[in-house]
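User: Hi! I'm working on a homework problem where we have to compare a predicted structure to a textbook description. Could you give me the structure for the chain below?
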Amino acid sequence: MISKASVRYIRISARKARLVADMVRGKPIDEARAILENAEKRARLYILEILNAAVANATSKDPDITPSDMYVSKITIDNGPMFKRYRAGTMGRAMQIRHRTSHMNIELDIRGQRTPGHQNTRTPVKKTEKKAGRPKIKGQIAKKETKPKTKKAVASKKGK
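Assistant: Happy to help. Predicted structure tokens:
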């Protein structure tokens, strides 16, 4: 990771912003800017602003780096708090309106370099290995044993 930038409490739903973020994830900076300038979504304005801030952070940290050397290594969009408002509903009720917000984070990296944090560290499990434990019995359900009711108990309840 060379640089990162973040912005919080943006007044757009995270679900809508993730559609745009998925388009630029893993792309070089020049290509990501071109995609964001031509996209027809409102979230592109916010993501383009964060991308430019991250590029400015990287160039201020190391002036030798150019935007053509970098790519978007990580971009996350999380849910923020909701602003709750009310409006009139049918039959005298009040209906709640939720104005959703989001937090956006972006990280840039140098092309050709992969940081250790972004590689897959999970080891695959072989299909032949099975979990230890009780064997499963198909078709049989364990029933709890109950005492059968006696005639005396049933007869005494009828009388009352």
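For your comparison, note the following. The longest strand covers residues 70-79. The helical segments are 14-24, 29-38, 43-61, 151-159. Good luck with the assignment!
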